[in-house]
Design goal:
By secondary structure, this protein is α+β, with helices and mostly antiparallel strands. It is 24% helix and 28% strand. The chain contains nine helices and 21 strands. The strands form four sheets. Strands 1, 2, 9, 10, 11, 12, 19 and 20 form an eight-stranded mixed sheet that branches. The chain has an eight-stranded mixed sheet with strand order 6-7-5-15-16-17-14-18. β1, α1 and β2 (43-46) form a beta-alpha-beta unit. Bound molecules: benzoic acid. The site of benzoic acid has 7 residues, from loops.
Length: 414
């Protein structure tokens, strides 16, 4: 097939039509384009589906902003994200974060994918983050939970918030649409990438586009882009199920919360929830399971149908331990997330591995729960693309070339 490289006109980047092509038009790709526009870098965003689609990790409309993490460096990073949220907030009158606080509670001995209550306390103390500690009685009296084992403990951290993810994406998209530095193309899956004549050439069904630098932020579809550059990342995929429960008492309200509990058989037994928010099924409260009964090995295996057993375990927990809710799920949704299989690497923020030609000009974000980091990750990815470095500590998210799987070329296969 003959393809034509787009002529971007007189303001073209030095090495091709664009300074940077961002592959992946979800919140992180949009945040990267936003930051690149502030640096006046001519940027193209390519999205395989439509902008705002519900097929990836940004499905649904709310996320948790929380400071408790078991690692000091994560506590520090999430604190560093706050001024970037405040800056983005200046671009819209719609509140992006509803500051209802974070409530972490449960069995103090449990270590889950989110960490452990005591470890989070230590990390917050080291970073001078204020929080209050709670007994099981406090949790029942002050927060509306019930029938909690008396051994449960908790902490409340007041800076936690429910993120209006839809408004966050809209704010970024509106900015990028209006920016003379950003071009947005959706329904543009990338089918080929090569480097020639001093630039990356990125082929899509809409044409071939050229740029000096690439930012790859394709969410759970990372490998379908990475394989074009002959590497893969070790990930597992969770199709997470959520449900909305109708309020039976108008006065009932919860903060954002997470409960740490031992798994019981195939019930992972970790749940999290949100307050009622004006932007998401008013009159209901969202509660979800933070486990899947069947992790996937590829995003292609996911369906948009939530696992009924995961929903049933969540509904049973709502029935047994929450007040003021009808424990029948009224609406359900799913969200697909890629989780790193590399120990202690929740997020991957790095350059492409060494074997990829011009790897220092290819910046990658992949895996993990990153909603709370959206504006900060935008800055970090733009720093890496334009400056080759960032003042933020990303050492914990850099995997090193040996962790990426190298895919052999047809010639190497012989
Ligand atoms: C998070 O804050 O990262 C998170 C919260 C609930 C479930 C999964 C992740």
């Amino acid at each position: 097939m003959e393809t034509k490289t787009e002529d971007a006109g007189p303001s073209s980047g030095r090495h091709g039509s664009y300074d940077v092509i961002v592959i992946g038009g979800g919140p992180i790709g949009q945040a990267a384009a936003y930051e690149l526009s502030l640096r006046q870098a001519k940027t193209l965003v390519l999205e395989q589906f439509t902008f705002g689609n519900q097929l990836g990790s940004s499905a649904g409309v709310s996320r948790q902003f929380r400071i408790p993490y078991p690692q000091e460096y994560m506590v520090k990073l999430v604190k560093q994200a706050i001024p970037f949220w405040d800056q983005l907030q200046e671009r819209t009158p719609v509140p992006l974060r509803d500051k209802v606080g974070t409530l972490w509670f449960g069995d103090p001995n449990v270590h889950s994918t989110e960490g452990n209550i005591g470890e989070a306390e230590k990390a917050m103390q080291a970073e001078n983050v204020p929080y209050t500690t709670l007994t099981a009685q406090d949790l029942e009296r002050e927060y509306g939970f019930r029938n909690l084992p008396s051994t449960y403990t908790g902490l409340f951290q007041a800076d936690g918030a429910s993120i209006d993810l839809k408004a966050t994406i809209r704010t970024l998209l509106d900015w990028n649409r209006a920016s003379s530095y950003v071009t947005l193309r959706d329904e543009a899956p990338v089918i080929h990438i090569d480097w020639r004549d001093g630039a990356f050439h990125v082929r899509t069904p809409l044409g071939t586009f050229a740029a000096a630098k690439l930012v790859l932020a394709p969410g759970p579809f990372a490998d379908s882009v990475f394989h074009l550059l002959r590497f893969q990342v070790a990930a597992t995929y969770w199709n997470m199920a959520s449900a909305y429960y109708r309020k039976t008492r108008p006065d009932v309200q919860y903060p954002t919360w997470f409960v740490f509990q031992e798994a019981v058989g195939d019930n992972g037994n970790q749940f999290y929830g949100f307050p009622e928010v004006s932007w998401d099924h008013p009159g209901t409260i969202r509660v979800a399971s933070d486990f899947v009964m069947q992790p996937l090995t590829s995003p292609a295996q996911r369906t948009l149908v939530p696992n009924p057993k995961e929903l049933a375990y969540t509904a049973a927990w709502v029935r047994d331990h929450m007040t003021g809710l009808d424990p029948v799920p009224h609406f359900t949704s799913t969200c697909l997330v890629a989780l790193s299989q590399i120990p202690n690497k929740e997020l991957i923020v790095d350059f492409a591995p060494d074997h990829v030609p011009h790897h220092q000009d290819i910046v990658i974000y992949a895996t993990g729960w990153a909603g709370k980091f959206v504006p900060l990750l935008g800055r970090i990815l733009s720093d890496l693309a334009l400056d080759g470095r960032t003042p933020f500590d990303i050492s914990h998210f850099q995997v090193g070339h040996h962790y990426f799987r190298r895919l052999r070329t047809a010639e190497e296969h012989g």
